[in-house]
Amino acid sequence: MVSVWFGEGLNSRSRAGVVCVLFVAALFVLRSLKVGLLAIMLVCLLGGSAMWRSHSEWEAVHEVRTGPYTGDAKLISDPQPVGRAARVVLEIEGQRFECWTYGSSKWRMMARVAGEGVTVQGERRLVTSANKRRLFVRHIVGRFEVTAVSEIATGAHIVESRFELAANRVRAALGEGARTLPNDQSTLFAGLVYGDDSQQPPAMVERFRGSGLAHLTAVSGQNVAFVLAVVAPMLTRLRRWSRLTMTLLVLIWFATMTRLEPSVIRAVTMAGISASVLAIGGRFKAWQVLATTCVALLLIDPFLLWSVGWWLSVGGSSGLILLSSRIRSTLECRGLKNHPWVLNWVVPSLAAQLGVLPFIVLVFGWPSAMSIPCNLLAVPIAGVVMLIGIPVALCAGFAPNAVAEIVMWPLGIGVKWIDTVAALGHHLNPPVWLDVFVALVPIVLLLRHRCGNLEA
User: Which residues, other chains included, contact 161 with Cβ-Cβ below 8 Å and sequence gap of 6+?
Assistant: First the structure.
């Protein structure tokens, strides 16, 4: 991570000097720890590769082709309505541009989804706003001022890959299956099941953030696990290498369907590494899988280092891996040893909340004291919706309205429950001192945990 950060200013003499000092210091530390020469060479290789990849990506976002353009463009993101406009990211001649469309151009763009192509006319400009760094770390190099939008003459799907085409068809079928739910429930269902929060109203976004439940509308490892659980009966019938191949294809398809968000990239990569290691007969500990995932993904896309979603995802996974056993033993020593269902209910949520706490405090401030009870009430129901949401909604998508209403009715109740918990958590806004107190109490209990003393 340090190498990726320093790679941004690799041409700067001051930063290059700091890199050399840190590099030499790291060598001395590794030698003092009696680390083998092969390990030192591997660390040096990974560090140098990370700096080079970071430097290359920063150079790429500053090499922008500007001026008038008329031709085909590919949608990288789904069009998102923002007031009277629609915001979308377009790929033009291999570079990404942020585009805001209005009027008739807006409605033509809103009819498309990520992966599809359109013919556009307009002008490519440099980013001059104060938030240009935020755009750069998303690989967006400039803005495109569009004057006309039309369909590609040979078909709107001409630029879609097979994975994108399959993913878009499944998303469309899921949306059709959720048609019987009220509007707010259908948009929340899309966020829970496949991470599409582009159509959620601002009031819903605000109450989910205020109650600490915003992570439910971002696809994570839980969603990936549920998808693999749905296809497990088919995968278990296959031979080892066929099973691995199909598992990887399912993971790639799901990542494409959820628009390659940082959280799902992390989750899918961890699942892919675990499946590959299992197929070859090896064994990795969970923290080793997470560390390998972080290194591999930062080498592929160094800009993940500046993604808040990435840090929250890694933090939540770290909490589950490193803190779950300690939290469980702490609660067992405090009288819950004979209540395993309570432990299974509380431990994962509390471990994930503690894992993301440092990043939430740094970026958003202290989380609401209501986030823990809201997660305990909403996460189990959200898990059920995520588990059965895809197969049920797909069946409802091809059924008549009367049948679809019956099939989707239980899911509608679950979605309504989650939204109600978020609304109550947002409405019951406790004072800041209580937020700090509730966040620090679990940490103090873990640090003072002495099971032997308690039993004595």
Answer: 115
Domain regions of the chain by residue span: 2-62, 67-151, 168-447
| Nearest to 57, CA basis, from 307, 314, 300 | 300
Of the listed ranges 94-98, 258-262, 331-335, the one predicted with least confidence: 331-335
Residue 456, pLDDT score? 42
Residues 6+ apart with CB under 8 A from 129: none
pLDDT of residue 325: 87
Instruction: Give DSSP secondary structure letters for 86-97.
Output: EEEEEEETTEEE
Strand ranges, E, within 185-325: none
What would be the CATH architecture of the domain defined by 67-151?
Beta Barrel (2.40)
- In angstroms, rounded to a whole number, what is the distance separating the alpha carbons of residues 180 and 424? 25
Contacts of 347 (CB under 8 A, 6+ apart): 324, 327, 328, 331
Return the structure tokens found at 50: 């990370």
Using one digit for the tens of pLDDT, what is the confidence trace for 424-437? 998 887 877 677 77
Q: What DSSP letter does each residue of 213-234 carry, written as one string?
A: -GGGGS--HHHHHHHHHHHHHH
Cα(229)–Cα(306) distance, rounded to whole angstroms? 32
- SS3 state of residue 156: coil
